[in-house]
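Listing S7. Sequence submitted for prediction.
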Amino acid sequence: MRIGIIDIGSNSMRLVIYEVRNKQFFVVGQLRHSARLGQEMKNNHLHPQRIEYGLKILQHFKEYMDAKNVDEVIAVATEAIRKAANKEAFLGPAKIALRKEIRILSGEEEAFYDYYATVNTLDLDKCLMVDIGGSSTELVLIENHKLQESISIPFGSIVLTEQFEVKKDPKKGKNTA
C-alpha cells in the first residue's frame, strides 16, 4: 500500500509518499515547493496569485502520486489556511484537484505533531522544541519524552519579514532602518 502525505504550510508545500510493507514505512518519493501561501495576505485574505500557484502545485502533486500508484492521500493545512478569511477560495479547488478533502490542523494539533516527530526521531529526555513556520511558531516543552506544555503562536518567518521589512536605499544599496 502507498500513502501520500501532503503538508500545505504557509511557506512551503510538501508531499512524501510512503510504501507500507510488513508494518514498515519506506519513502518512495517526495516533492517540496515554496508556495508561500501566507505571503502578501491583506486583511487575512490569501493573495489570488498565491492561491493559483498553490493549486498548480497540488495538481503537480496529484500527477506525481498517480504516477507512483498512491492508494491513499492524507492532506493537511496549517496557519495561513487556518486564519484565511477566504480559505474556501483555496480549499474548494484544492479538493477538486486532489479528489480529497484537506483537513485544517488546529494550532494545538500542529504542536502535537511537532512533539510526536521530535520524540520519535531524537533521543532527548528534556528539551524545548521550536518550529518556526511561515505564519506560525510552535513551542513544545518535552520532559521524559512526554509533552508537558505546548503553544502555537500566530507569527512566523513570512509574517515577521513583512511586518518588519528592511528597505534598501536605492542610491547606496544598503539597508535602512
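Caption to Listing S7: primary sequence and predicted C-alpha cells for the chain studied. The chain has two domains: 2-104, 107-163. The two ends are 55 Å apart (CA to CA).
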